[in-house]
Specification:
heterodimer, A: 108 residues, mainly beta, 6-stranded mixed sheet, 3-stranded antiparallel sheet, B: 120 residues, 10 strands, 48% strand, globular
Amino acid sequence: SYALTQPPSVSVAPGQTATISCGGDDIGSKSVHWYQQKPGQAPVLVVDNDGDRPSGIPERLSGSKSGNTATLTISRVEAGDEAAYYCQQWHSGSDHVVFGGGTKLTVL
Amino acid sequence: EVQLVESGGGLVKSGGSLRLSCSASGLTFNTYMMNWVRQAPGKGLEWVSAISTSSSYIYYADSVKGRFTVSRDNARKSLYLQLNNLRADDTAVYYCATSGRGYEEAFEYWGQGTLVTVSS
């Protein structure tokens, strides 16, 4: 079955840039969306359609896609960015929504 | 303000059933595809099911197909998930979420979730 692969964890110092990857064999065929989830809370959409930011999401968060990999970039990382991040895509071959396994971002 | 409120979770024995509900407000419910997503304790997000605006198209994850049934009532602005033949690995927080008009669209609005615990 189709899978999206993320690194389990990423660590970065405050003020630095964090990059979180999401790999998939068919990732170029459909839009990729990204969610932030803090402990005890519901997920929040932070990037949709590969690189668009919903209203209220800081410009420090951005998305891109190239080849078989989508990337979420968080610039000038703050303590409040510490959370789990998930990529997601609709896979037309299976008519399933697929989530990546999630990446825990730790701010050192 | 858009609100999605799930209810119906609880403790159930293995093999038992539950019916989850998701009540929507602040949006034109019948223009949104709806989804159920679950999250087992300490684990990641897992998509469970999607239903189109008029219920014409319904999809399930392989892990729940044949045991769970999704439905919606646009007049009541409500989404449902019938969970049958529950197993221990169905234990999770279940979220409802909107996904616009198309399958490819992002999950813009989420509820706060309802916890289902299946005991053996």
